[in-house]
């Protein structure tokens, strides 16, 4: 799913959790406390054709309620007990529109307000206006007043395609709302083997709703950390402005050992990988050499990944950032590789560290 802004899902039930000692025996007094519930209210706008297709506004709201029960159930269970709160998204059908959803999207992009809602959702079930076809699909982006807007637009001119009827759609909405909470697309970090001229290997991001929601039923630790971190904010774009770049450590410390001993003079090449293309640019973006301690400290890491100095050997850098790097160490003709996707390096933020450490052994 597309995410149009950088660096940027919940239901009120009490779930008792029991601690088990012996099989079938429940320890008295070992019941965990229920998590506090955090609600996010969704301003929903739906095309007239979609509302009429499902029997009117009240019937559509009922379907929305049922659908978001599924979203909320999935969202929380996919956390695997790692969330600090119980999350609940509450859909509120406010607008039934009879115009191009693109026009409505443009209006909401400029409109401030919505004081009683936390996120905007536009649903368009049929491509019945000419300008909609070029923007079909689902995506998340920013709107006025630091709101987040999610658009779910059909891919069909004849068949109704909204949120209902297909199993993975609830996971797709969870994915888009993951952007609302501040999590980027993990699939953008992927490097395809056929597009990797350096070592011809495939590099796959962690299993996560933000990587592949079609058949994934869990949040990665990276997503969990961000969702917990921004949980209490109804508008993370306002309250956590610049979070994406802030999550990068200031440094990456590379240590190289040969036969267990630190080795000086080993050459390091840093190759950049691009989103959308999922390729690795074959010319090193940076080249280093380890010191007599067998180390090299890469500094200015946030600016290395995000809004970097323009690379000389590529004509396009989507979103103006490197989504991952491949670090190559070469010693006497032998080469070793370490993949450095942004989500892995950013985990240092949640460990309160300013340096990500890499060790390479020959």
Summarize, please:
By secondary structure, this protein is an alpha/beta fold. It folds into two domains: 2-182 and 231-239, Collagenase (Catalytic Domain) (3-Layer(aba) Sandwich), CATH 3.40.390; 244-361, Immunoglobulin-like, CATH 2.60.40.
Description:
Helices cover 21% and strands 26% of the residues. The chain has helices at residues 48-53, 57-77, 101-110, 169-180, 221-229, 236-239, 243-246, 301-305, 342-345, and strands at residues 2-3, 37-47, 86-97, 119-124, 137-142, 148-153, 251-258, 261-262, 267-274, 279-280, 286-289, 295-299, 324-331, 334-341, 355-361. The protein has a 6-stranded mixed beta sheet with strand order 1-5-6-4-2-3, with helices on both faces. Helix 2 crosses helix 4 (169-180). The two termini are 40 Å apart. 38% of the residues are buried. Residues 1-23 form the signal peptide. Keywords: Signal.
CATH class category label of the largest domain:
Alpha Beta
Average pLDDT for all residues = 86
Strand order within the widest beta sheet: 1-5-6-4-2-3
> How many discrete structural domains?
2
Uncertain regions spanning at least 5 consecutive residues? 1-31
Tag the structure with descriptive keywords.
Immunoglobulin-like, signal, disordered N terminus, Collagenase (Catalytic Domain), five-stranded antiparallel β-sheet, alpha/beta, elongated, six-stranded mixed β-sheet, 362 residues, 21% helix, single chain
